[in-house]
Specification:
Length: 72
C-alpha cells in the first residue's frame, strides 16, 4: 500500500518555521506535527530566502490591486 502525500498550506509552513526560529528544536517541532525534519529544514531555507513572503509575480499583482482598491 502506498501512503498519500500530504499537502501543507503556506500559512502552516510559515507557522512551523517561525516556531523553529523562536528557539524550538527542529526535531521537537517535527515530532509534534508528524513531519520529517528534513522538510522543516527545506521550508526554513525557503523562508529565509524570502520565497514565502510574496516574491512571486502573482503576489505583486495582488498587492497592486489592493492598493488600487484602497485608493477608490
Amino acid at each position: 500500500m502506498s501512503k498519500r502525500r500530504r499537502k501543507y498550506t503556506k500559512d502552516f509552513k510559515i507557522e512551523i518555521v517561525e516556531s523553529v526560529l523562536k528557539g524550538r528544536s527542529i526535531l521537537e517541532v517535527a515530532k509534534e506535527n508528524e513531519i520529517y525534519p528534513g522538510l522543516i529544514t527545506k521550508w526554513k531555507r525557503k523562508y529565509l530566502s524570502g520565497e514565502f513572503h510574496g516574491s512571486s509575480a502573482t503576489d505583486t499583482e495582488l498587492r497592486k490591486l489592493k492598493l488600487k482598491i484602497c485608493e477608490l
